[in-house]
Specification:
With 300 residues, the protein is an alpha/beta fold. The chain has one domain: Acetylglutamate kinase-like (Carbamate kinase, 3-Layer(aba) Sandwich). The protein has helices at 4-27, 38-42, 46-62, 74-83, 99-122, 159-167, 190-201, 231-239, 247-258, 275-281, and strands at residues 31-36, 66-71, 90-91, 94-95, 128-132, 139-143, 152-157, 171-175, 177-179, 185-187, 205-210, 228-230, 264-269, 288-291. The longest helix is centred in the first third of the chain and has 24 residues, at 4-27.
Length: 300
């Protein structure tokens, strides 16, 4: 016989499923690009954080969505550089990358972080396929600034590589090393790549998982968390210095994406258990949502 506590728990589960139903219907068949940041990966116990993230992505896939994972690995690259006796230097959130550093970045992203994510997702079935931007000419790049070395800007995305995987119901997991027409590899900011891929695929949502709760109008004031905002407001916050450092590429890619066909962009705290499901399948929402035009109350 079911006791009262079990009955309450069962009722809560049923209510949650009912709440999720309209969102499952709405987003069935829609593409969601998720950038899983190296900081989110390093934010908690790696096993727990990764396992929860993998569950979210697989559930999205099983209810008919098309998740695409783009991953960073900044902390892991910095750790490897430290072990190898190299100094790390950043300019406006971008890593200065000499020839040795681009080899280190490629080794860490393709040899460590990417297989780790793929393996975590595939605990639940044969869903994830790991690729880098070099594969199939997925990410074409050119040098961003000679002073930054082998840091690339995205010149084009080959969406056919990803659409083939999505059509066959796989989950692409993308390491953000791109190349130019001569085969030269470039380390590309993962935030920028995620935005470019979301645009190329006409994604419904672009989601950034990081180690902060969302964007704030005042960095040191938790009460200034921005729940909904627009591309115009974000540009103003960058201009007045409220948003700086490593958040600049993230915000710039959000702004560009929502102005070029992506419905919404979201900045979420990847350390929160099942944060993707909370944002996509519940009424409450979480973190910061960015729209191309003025936000409406109650929109998701």
């Amino acid at each position: 016989m079911i006791d009262a506590v079990d009955m309450d728990a069962a009722a809560l589960k049923a209510a949650t499923l009912v709440e999720a139903l309209p969102y499952i219907r709405r987003f069935a068949g829609k593409t969601v690009v998720v950038k899983y940041g190296g900081n989110a990966l390093a934010g908690t116990s790696e096993h727990d954080a990764l396992a929860l993230f993998a569950e979210d992505v697989v559930l999205m896939r099983l209810v008919g969505m098309q998740p695409v994972v783009v991953h960073g690995g900044g902390p892991q690259i910095s750790e490897m550089m430290l072990r190898l006796g190299k100094q790390t230097e950043f300019v406006d959130g971008l890593r200065v990358t000499d020839a040795e550093t681009v080899d280190i970045a490629r080794m860490v992203l393709k040899g460590q972080v990417n297989p780790q994510l793929v393996a975590a997702i595939n605990v639940h079935g044969n869903y994830a396929v790991g690729v880098s931007g070099v594969d199939g000419g997925l990410i074409r790049a050119q040098v961003r600034d000679p002073d930054l070395g082998f840091v690339g800007d995205v010149t084009s995305i080959n969406p056919g590589v990803l659409r083939g995987m999505l059509d066959n119901e796989f989950i692409p997991v993308i390491a953000t090393i791109g190349s130019d027409e001569h085969g030269q590899a470039y380390n590309i900011n993962a935030d920028t790549v995620a935005g470019a891929i979301a645009e190329a695929l006409g994604a419904e949502k672009l989601v950034y998982l990081t180690d902060i709760e969302g964007l704030r109008r005042q960095v040191d004031d938790p009460a200034s968390l921005i729940r909904q905002t627009t591309a115009n407001e974000l540009e103003s916050l960058v201009a007045d210095g409220s948003i700086a450092g490593g958040m600049i590429p993230k915000v710039a890619s959000c702004v560009h994406a929502v102005r070029n066909g992506v419905h919404n962009a979201h900045i979420l705290d990847g350390r929160i258990a099942h944060v993707l499901l909370l944002e996509i399948f519940t009424d409450s929402g979480i973190g910061t949502m960015i729209k191309g035009s003025e936000p409406q109350e109650g929109t998701t």
